[in-house]
Amino acid sequence: MTITALDHIALVVSDLAAAEAGYERLLGRKANWRGSMHGASHVWFQLGNMALDVIAPTGEGVVGDTIRARIASHGEGIWGLGFSVPDMAAAQKRFERVGVPAYDREEVSTNLETGATREWAVASLRAKSTHGVNLFLVENRPGVATWPEADTVGDAPVSGLDHVVVRTPDPERAAALYGARLGLDLRLDRSNPDWGTRLMFFRLGDLVVEIAHDLKAGVSDGPDSFWGLTWRVTDVPAAQARLKAAGADVSEVRTGRKPGTAVFTVKDAPGGVPTLVIGPAA
Question: 160-280: which CATH number, 3.50.50.60, 3.40.50.300, 3.10.180.10, 3.40.50.620?
Fold first, then answer.
Protein backbone atom coordinates (compact mmCIF):
# COMPACT_ATOMS: atom_id res chain seq x y z
CA MET A 1 0.00 0.00 0.00
CA THR A 2 1.37 3.43 -0.93
CA ILE A 3 -0.15 5.30 2.04
CA THR A 4 1.07 3.80 5.31
CA ALA A 5 -0.27 6.14 8.03
CA LEU A 6 -1.82 9.47 8.82
CA ASP A 7 1.14 11.79 9.30
CA HIS A 8 -0.79 14.76 10.68
CA ILE A 9 -3.93 16.86 10.67
CA ALA A 10 -3.63 20.56 9.90
CA LEU A 11 -5.99 22.87 11.79
CA VAL A 12 -6.26 26.60 11.02
CA VAL A 13 -7.14 29.23 13.62
CA SER A 14 -6.98 33.00 14.00
CA ASP A 15 -5.45 33.12 17.51
CA LEU A 16 -2.55 30.70 17.75
CA ALA A 17 -1.77 31.32 21.44
CA ALA A 18 -5.36 30.64 22.49
CA ALA A 19 -5.56 27.52 20.32
CA GLU A 20 -2.27 26.20 21.70
CA ALA A 21 -3.50 26.66 25.27
CA GLY A 22 -6.81 25.04 24.36
CA TYR A 23 -5.21 21.96 22.83
CA GLU A 24 -2.70 21.65 25.65
CA ARG A 25 -5.71 21.43 27.94
CA LEU A 26 -7.67 19.07 25.69
CA LEU A 27 -4.82 16.70 24.86
CA GLY A 28 -3.09 16.86 28.22
CA ARG A 29 0.17 17.48 26.38
CA LYS A 30 2.53 20.37 25.71
CA ALA A 31 3.35 21.37 22.14
CA ASN A 32 6.74 20.06 21.06
CA TRP A 33 7.42 22.34 18.08
CA ARG A 34 6.67 26.00 17.43
CA GLY A 35 7.52 27.00 13.89
CA SER A 36 7.14 29.62 11.21
CA MET A 37 6.80 29.14 7.48
CA HIS A 38 5.82 31.43 4.59
CA GLY A 39 3.72 33.93 6.55
CA ALA A 40 2.23 31.46 9.05
CA SER A 41 3.15 30.25 12.52
CA HIS A 42 2.25 26.87 13.89
CA VAL A 43 2.51 24.56 16.88
CA TRP A 44 2.77 20.78 16.70
CA PHE A 45 1.51 18.19 19.15
CA GLN A 46 3.07 14.81 18.34
CA LEU A 47 0.94 11.90 19.53
CA GLY A 48 1.39 8.15 19.36
CA ASN A 49 -0.15 7.61 15.94
CA MET A 50 -0.16 11.07 14.27
CA ALA A 51 0.44 14.75 14.94
CA LEU A 52 -1.78 17.81 15.20
CA ASP A 53 -0.45 20.92 13.44
CA VAL A 54 -2.25 24.09 14.57
CA ILE A 55 -1.57 27.00 12.19
CA ALA A 56 -2.41 30.71 12.14
CA PRO A 57 -1.59 33.43 9.60
CA THR A 58 0.95 35.82 11.11
CA GLY A 59 2.56 37.59 8.15
CA GLU A 60 2.89 37.86 4.40
CA GLY A 61 3.61 34.70 2.45
CA VAL A 62 1.91 32.01 0.45
CA VAL A 63 0.91 29.85 3.44
CA GLY A 64 -0.23 32.81 5.54
CA ASP A 65 -2.23 34.27 2.66
CA THR A 66 -3.83 30.90 1.88
CA ILE A 67 -4.86 30.30 5.49
CA ARG A 68 -6.16 33.85 5.88
CA ALA A 69 -8.36 33.37 2.81
CA ARG A 70 -9.50 29.95 4.05
CA ILE A 71 -10.58 31.33 7.41
CA ALA A 72 -12.37 34.24 5.73
CA SER A 73 -14.35 31.93 3.45
CA HIS A 74 -14.92 28.87 5.68
CA GLY A 75 -13.99 29.86 9.23
CA GLU A 76 -11.58 28.08 11.53
CA GLY A 77 -11.32 24.31 11.54
CA ILE A 78 -9.64 21.32 9.95
CA TRP A 79 -7.67 22.43 6.90
CA GLY A 80 -6.15 19.21 5.65
CA LEU A 81 -5.01 15.62 6.16
CA GLY A 82 -1.41 14.67 5.51
CA PHE A 83 -0.91 11.00 4.59
CA SER A 84 2.46 9.34 5.15
CA VAL A 85 4.18 7.64 2.22
CA PRO A 86 7.58 5.87 2.26
CA ASP A 87 8.64 7.05 -1.21
CA MET A 88 7.27 10.29 -2.61
CA ALA A 89 8.31 9.72 -6.21
CA ALA A 90 6.73 6.25 -6.29
CA ALA A 91 3.55 7.57 -4.65
CA GLN A 92 3.24 10.39 -7.17
CA LYS A 93 3.60 7.96 -10.07
CA ARG A 94 0.92 5.68 -8.67
CA PHE A 95 -1.58 8.43 -7.93
CA GLU A 96 -1.02 9.99 -11.34
CA ARG A 97 -2.01 6.65 -12.90
CA VAL A 98 -5.27 6.49 -10.91
CA GLY A 99 -6.27 10.08 -11.65
CA VAL A 100 -5.17 11.80 -8.42
CA PRO A 101 -2.09 13.84 -9.36
CA ALA A 102 0.11 15.16 -6.54
CA TYR A 103 2.09 18.39 -6.90
CA ASP A 104 5.33 19.06 -4.99
CA ARG A 105 5.67 21.99 -2.65
CA GLU A 106 8.54 23.09 -0.44
CA GLU A 107 8.18 22.66 3.33
CA VAL A 108 10.85 24.21 5.53
CA SER A 109 9.79 25.10 9.08
CA THR A 110 11.95 27.11 11.49
CA ASN A 111 11.57 26.51 15.23
CA LEU A 112 10.73 29.89 16.78
CA GLU A 113 12.45 28.96 20.05
CA THR A 114 15.68 27.31 18.93
CA GLY A 115 16.17 28.40 15.31
CA ALA A 116 16.36 24.76 14.20
CA THR A 117 14.79 23.90 10.87
CA ARG A 118 12.84 20.93 9.64
CA GLU A 119 12.60 20.07 5.95
CA TRP A 120 10.37 17.42 4.45
CA ALA A 121 8.93 16.41 1.12
CA VAL A 122 5.23 17.26 0.69
CA ALA A 123 2.92 16.95 -2.32
CA SER A 124 -0.63 18.27 -2.52
CA LEU A 125 -3.29 16.16 -4.21
CA ARG A 126 -5.30 18.11 -6.78
CA ALA A 127 -8.42 19.53 -5.08
CA LYS A 128 -10.65 18.60 -8.02
CA SER A 129 -9.59 14.97 -7.63
CA THR A 130 -10.21 15.00 -3.86
CA HIS A 131 -13.66 16.60 -4.22
CA GLY A 132 -12.78 19.82 -2.45
CA VAL A 133 -10.94 18.65 0.67
CA ASN A 134 -7.25 19.37 1.20
CA LEU A 135 -5.30 16.10 1.12
CA PHE A 136 -1.55 15.87 0.80
CA LEU A 137 1.32 13.41 1.02
CA VAL A 138 4.26 13.56 3.43
CA GLU A 139 7.35 11.47 2.81
CA ASN A 140 8.52 9.41 5.79
CA ARG A 141 11.24 7.09 4.61
CA PRO A 142 11.78 3.81 6.52
CA GLY A 143 14.56 4.02 9.09
CA VAL A 144 14.34 7.78 9.59
CA ALA A 145 13.86 8.71 13.24
CA THR A 146 10.38 9.92 14.14
CA TRP A 147 9.58 12.82 16.42
CA PRO A 148 9.18 12.03 20.13
CA GLU A 149 5.70 12.29 21.60
CA ALA A 150 4.71 15.58 23.19
CA ASP A 151 5.24 15.65 26.95
CA THR A 152 2.16 15.00 29.07
CA VAL A 153 0.67 17.41 31.58
CA GLY A 154 -1.85 16.11 34.10
CA ASP A 155 -3.80 12.88 34.28
CA ALA A 156 -5.31 10.77 31.50
CA PRO A 157 -3.73 12.48 28.46
CA VAL A 158 -4.82 11.75 24.91
CA SER A 159 -2.72 8.91 23.51
CA GLY A 160 -3.66 9.32 19.86
CA LEU A 161 -6.39 9.89 17.30
CA ASP A 162 -9.21 7.36 17.08
CA HIS A 163 -10.87 8.74 13.94
CA VAL A 164 -11.35 11.79 11.76
CA VAL A 165 -14.69 12.40 10.03
CA VAL A 166 -15.17 13.60 6.46
CA ARG A 167 -18.69 14.45 5.29
CA THR A 168 -19.66 13.67 1.70
CA PRO A 169 -22.78 14.27 -0.42
CA ASP A 170 -21.81 11.32 -2.65
CA PRO A 171 -20.76 8.18 -0.77
CA GLU A 172 -19.94 6.13 -3.88
CA ARG A 173 -17.64 8.87 -5.11
CA ALA A 174 -15.95 8.98 -1.71
CA ALA A 175 -15.60 5.20 -1.63
CA ALA A 176 -13.86 5.28 -5.00
CA LEU A 177 -11.45 8.01 -3.84
CA TYR A 178 -10.43 6.69 -0.43
CA GLY A 179 -10.64 3.00 -1.30
CA ALA A 180 -9.80 2.40 -4.96
CA ARG A 181 -7.58 5.43 -5.61
CA LEU A 182 -5.87 6.16 -2.30
CA GLY A 183 -5.80 2.50 -1.32
CA LEU A 184 -7.18 2.77 2.21
CA ASP A 185 -8.67 -0.36 3.77
CA LEU A 186 -12.49 -0.27 3.90
CA ARG A 187 -13.48 -2.13 7.07
CA LEU A 188 -17.12 -1.12 7.50
CA ASP A 189 -19.89 0.26 5.27
CA ARG A 190 -23.18 0.62 7.11
CA SER A 191 -26.35 2.67 6.78
CA ASN A 192 -28.28 3.33 9.96
CA PRO A 193 -31.77 4.80 9.47
CA ASP A 194 -31.97 5.67 13.18
CA TRP A 195 -28.97 7.96 12.80
CA GLY A 196 -29.94 9.01 9.27
CA THR A 197 -26.39 8.34 8.17
CA ARG A 198 -24.33 6.01 6.00
CA LEU A 199 -20.89 5.46 7.51
CA MET A 200 -17.76 4.05 5.89
CA PHE A 201 -14.72 3.27 8.03
CA PHE A 202 -11.34 3.19 6.28
CA ARG A 203 -8.66 1.71 8.52
CA LEU A 204 -5.25 3.40 8.41
CA GLY A 205 -2.84 1.91 10.91
CA ASP A 206 -4.63 1.96 14.26
CA LEU A 207 -6.98 4.84 13.40
CA VAL A 208 -9.93 5.36 11.09
CA VAL A 209 -10.84 7.83 8.37
CA GLU A 210 -14.63 7.89 8.66
CA ILE A 211 -16.78 8.99 5.72
CA ALA A 212 -20.29 10.13 6.67
CA HIS A 213 -23.23 10.68 4.33
CA ASP A 214 -26.56 12.26 5.33
CA LEU A 215 -29.18 9.82 3.99
CA LYS A 216 -31.97 12.41 4.14
CA ALA A 217 -30.03 14.88 2.01
CA GLY A 218 -29.73 12.47 -0.91
CA VAL A 219 -26.82 12.33 -3.34
CA SER A 220 -25.36 15.41 -5.03
CA ASP A 221 -22.13 16.49 -6.72
CA GLY A 222 -21.27 19.08 -4.04
CA PRO A 223 -17.87 19.14 -2.30
CA ASP A 224 -16.81 16.96 0.59
CA SER A 225 -15.90 18.67 3.87
CA PHE A 226 -13.99 17.92 7.04
CA TRP A 227 -16.08 17.64 10.18
CA GLY A 228 -14.84 16.24 13.51
CA LEU A 229 -12.15 14.45 15.50
CA THR A 230 -12.33 11.69 18.09
CA TRP A 231 -9.38 11.43 20.47
CA ARG A 232 -8.38 8.25 22.30
CA VAL A 233 -7.65 7.94 26.03
CA THR A 234 -7.09 4.96 28.32
CA ASP A 235 -9.26 6.30 31.18
CA VAL A 236 -12.39 8.13 30.05
CA PRO A 237 -13.72 9.23 33.48
CA ALA A 238 -10.28 10.54 34.49
CA ALA A 239 -9.91 12.47 31.22
CA GLN A 240 -13.37 13.98 31.61
CA ALA A 241 -12.59 14.96 35.20
CA ARG A 242 -9.27 16.53 34.18
CA LEU A 243 -10.90 18.65 31.48
CA LYS A 244 -13.83 19.62 33.69
CA ALA A 245 -11.49 20.72 36.48
CA ALA A 246 -9.56 22.83 33.95
CA GLY A 247 -12.74 24.68 32.99
CA ALA A 248 -13.52 22.92 29.71
CA ASP A 249 -17.12 22.59 28.58
CA VAL A 250 -17.60 18.83 28.49
CA SER A 251 -20.58 16.48 28.55
CA GLU A 252 -21.12 13.68 31.00
CA VAL A 253 -19.56 10.31 30.19
CA ARG A 254 -21.92 8.04 28.24
CA THR A 255 -21.85 4.66 26.55
CA GLY A 256 -20.25 4.76 23.10
CA ARG A 257 -21.84 3.42 19.94
CA LYS A 258 -18.92 1.02 19.56
CA PRO A 259 -19.39 -1.90 21.96
CA GLY A 260 -17.17 -1.76 25.03
CA THR A 261 -16.46 1.97 24.83
CA ALA A 262 -17.33 5.10 26.77
CA VAL A 263 -17.27 8.63 25.35
CA PHE A 264 -17.82 12.26 26.19
CA THR A 265 -18.11 15.40 24.08
CA VAL A 266 -15.80 18.41 24.28
CA LYS A 267 -18.02 21.36 23.40
CA ASP A 268 -15.39 24.12 23.27
CA ALA A 269 -12.54 22.55 21.28
CA PRO A 270 -10.28 25.17 19.64
CA GLY A 271 -11.15 25.98 16.06
CA GLY A 272 -14.77 24.98 16.61
CA VAL A 273 -14.00 21.35 15.69
CA PRO A 274 -16.72 18.87 16.79
CA THR A 275 -14.75 16.75 19.26
CA LEU A 276 -15.31 13.45 21.03
CA VAL A 277 -13.10 11.58 23.49
CA ILE A 278 -13.30 7.78 23.51
CA GLY A 279 -11.84 4.94 25.53
CA PRO A 280 -12.65 1.58 27.08
CA ALA A 281 -15.77 1.35 29.20
CA ALA A 282 -15.15 0.95 32.93
Answer: 3.10.180.10
